[in-house]
Amino acid sequence: MKKDGLGRLLVESGEITEEQLATALKYNQEKESKGARGLLGQTLIELGYSTEEAITRAIARQAGVEFVSLENYEIDSTAAALIDPETARRYQALPIGFEQGRLVVAMMYPKDIITIDDLRLLTGFDIKPVCVADSELKIAIEQYARSSAAIEQEDDSIPEVVEEEPAGDVSEKPAVQLANLIFNQAVRNGASDIHIEPQEKSLRVRFRIDGVLHEVMQPPHRLHPSLVSRIKVMAGMDIANRLVPQDGRTTIKVDGRVIDCRVASLPSAFGEKLTLRLLERHARLITLPELGFPEAQFSRFRKILNLPYGCILVTGPTGSGKSTTLYASLVELNKVEKNIITVEDPIEYRLNGINQVQVNPRAGLTFANGLRSILRSDPDIIMVGEIRDRETARIAVESALTGHLV
Fold first, then answer.
1. Are the CB atoms for 301 and 395 separated by under 8 Å?
2. What is the pLDDT of residues 195-250, one digit of tens each?
């Protein structure tokens, strides 16, 4: 009698005996002769010869893939959201995470090439199948379906444009899903910047977290044009013009958190590169004692901050904490008897009790012009977001010499 490949694995591992395998195969033959389908794994479980977990582990070994137990597995909701519940039920497959730019999909039969190909086309990601127990998979899919229904009602757990989106003909589902996925992961990982970079034959997405860039995924290169168009439409940029650098802004909502997003496009050799700066609108600001200065430096810095006039320069590379230090200083100085005015591009955090001015070069409001206007508004303390030119530097120093803290 022909031995099934799965059966042979179970015998060799000591899970079942030769006699039990023979009995199960004979039982299946009888079922098939009556027109019923006989699956060896199910039969072994029905006869009490093995368990669902042991069968699933053997299927994973047979297919050469990883076995995963979903019982205590934390499923990535952004991965699951790449397919709808009906698709998950139809294919009996559920995305559960990401690994090295691939979408990890839980399946009972990980050698189902048709399902893998269909999911690759639906999601736009290369698929890494993992093997899970049938009962656990069914439970996970139904839990996802229930949570998906709740999400549709609350509409809070995926990014959404808070302000009205500009009109645009960018509705390709994979691009929208990928943009949502990138925003979700970036916000939940605490990223300050997102880099979307086309390469010659690939697409790279990197997040800047705590000042360091990390590669997080490599979506299919073919999604690059539609992904860029999707984000440019959200940011109110010209999607037809791909040869000139552009700037735009949008607002997204992730897990109930409102995030202001500044978008910059840059033409590169392989297409447009997008850089997105993420700023949480209602984020808790770090206070001066929380900056981590050594005690001696902290005391010295606080003493300097409380001088009646002078110029304090905060310098450093990208991601080194310049803005964090400046805002912590403003929080420290924010008192009812002080008139504090800032000129910024952009306003990263909105502070009650402080007058914040947004630079707008198109309207003629530059750092230099803004500073001139501020000096006519009886300021005690002035914060200049950036000193970009000689004129701004001159006015800032003159302001410090005439009784203002800059």
1. no
2. 999 988 888 899 988 888 888 888 878 888 889 989 998 888 888 888 899 988 88
The encoded tokens of residue 333 equal 């100085």
Q: Where are the beta strands (DSSP E) in 84-143?
A: 93-99, 102-107, 127-131
The 10 Å Cβ neighbour count of residue 352 is 5
Is there a domain that residue 406 lies in?
no
Residues 6+ apart with CB under 8 A from 170: 176, 226, 229, 230, 233, 239
* Cβ proximity of 156 and 81 under 8 Å: no
Amino acid identity of residue 237, one-letter, is: M
Return the beta strands (E) in 168-270 as ranges.
Answer: 193-198, 203-209, 212-217, 246-254, 257-268
Task: Tell me the residue range of the domain where 333 lies.
Answer: 288-401
* Those residues with Cβ within 8 angstroms of residue 121's Cβ, 6 or more apart along the chain or in another chain: none
Please identify, among 102, 125, 154, the residue that sits at the C-terminal boundary of a domain. Answer: 154
CATH code for the domain of 388: 3.40.50.300
Q: How many angstroms separate the most distant Cα atoms in the chain?
A: 100
162 domain residue, yes or no: no
Alpha carbon distance 370, 382 (integer Å): 11
Residue range 271-303, pLDDT digits in tens = 999 999 998 876 667 888 888 889 899 899 999
C-alpha to C-alpha distance for 353 and 337, rounded to whole angstroms: 11
Claim to verify: residue 263 and residue 199 sit in the same structural domain = yes
Number of domains, the chain: 4
Q: Give yes or no: residues 309 and 250 share one domain.
A: no
